[in-house]
Amino acid sequence: MSGSDTSHSPPLDVVTGAFGYSGAAIAAQLRESGRRVRTLTAHPERAPSHTDIEVHPLDFDDRPRLTEALRGVETLYNTYWIRFPRGSLDHAAATARSQVLFQAAADAGVQRVVHLSITHPGMDSPYSYFREKARTEAALVGTGVPHTILRPAILFGGSGVLLNNIAWLLRRIPVFAVGGDGSYRIRGIHVDDLARLCVTEGTRTGSAVLDAVGPERPTFDELVRTIAEAVGSRARLVHVPGALVPPVASALGLFLRDRLLTADEYRAMADGLADTDGPATGTTALSDWLRHEGPTLGRHYANELTRHYR
Fold this sequence. Notes:
Elements: E1 12-16, H1 22-32, E2 36-41, E3 54-57, H2 63-69, E4 75-78, H3 91-108, E5 112-116, H4 128-143, E6 147-152, E7 154-156, H5 162-172, E8 175-179, E9 188-190, H6 191-201, E10 208-212, H7 220-231, E11 236-240, H8 245-256, H9 263-270, H10 286-293, H11 304-308
Parallel strand pairs: 1-2, 1-4, 2-3, 4-5, 5-6, 6-10, 7-9, 8-11
Helix pairs in contact: 1-6, 2-3, 3-4, 5-7, 7-10
């Protein structure tokens, strides 16, 4: 049999960002199920030397090359997005890039797309993140490729940033400010639960839209108190006007050389957009995970800008 004969090879899937956070968890689940994995990544130079994942560049300016990288692929698992605008790259540009990727998948004959979106996307949302996520979903639907759109709010577990950095702050500062009354709820899902859900949806027929959420939805105030207890923090929690949170987060970000929390991220969370009241699609309880991970959580700061841009 020639080296190019793949008639007896396991099925091939593509994961965008398979060396990143959610992408790595999805790739691991796929490999455990016996499937071959190819990644499209903006940083091919960061690929581990020992990996058996095929590495191709995620070059949105070269659609023919993207199309070729997607030929023979059963399912595309798309994790591509940007958390906040940086330079000329904003959320609208991320939507345009996603459209290129989806059209390349359609041209290549990809059989299915599993796409990670966000809870409560809306074309008329005041927040560009949620507005452009809705437009990206519409672009995928418009290709006609069978798909599942999964809508998580926040992820935890693994090398997650948000809860780790809250824990890092709670270990180091005497006072932790909670915007408003802290009654807005957070519906997180463990990254491994999300990965299992993605792989399950990769075998579905037809199209679907599902919230990707865990079984617990604590208020933000409850979440911070649970993290504080888990890491043994003595920090005092104080409630401050919501308008103070973005400038305080910005000042901390300057000190840490990072974007700790954007104004839109805080306002969207305070508006309840990180919560849903639908059925859980993940099984890991956030409170149990925090109690288990407390001794190590927040020992080191996770810098978002370093991970993605430096």
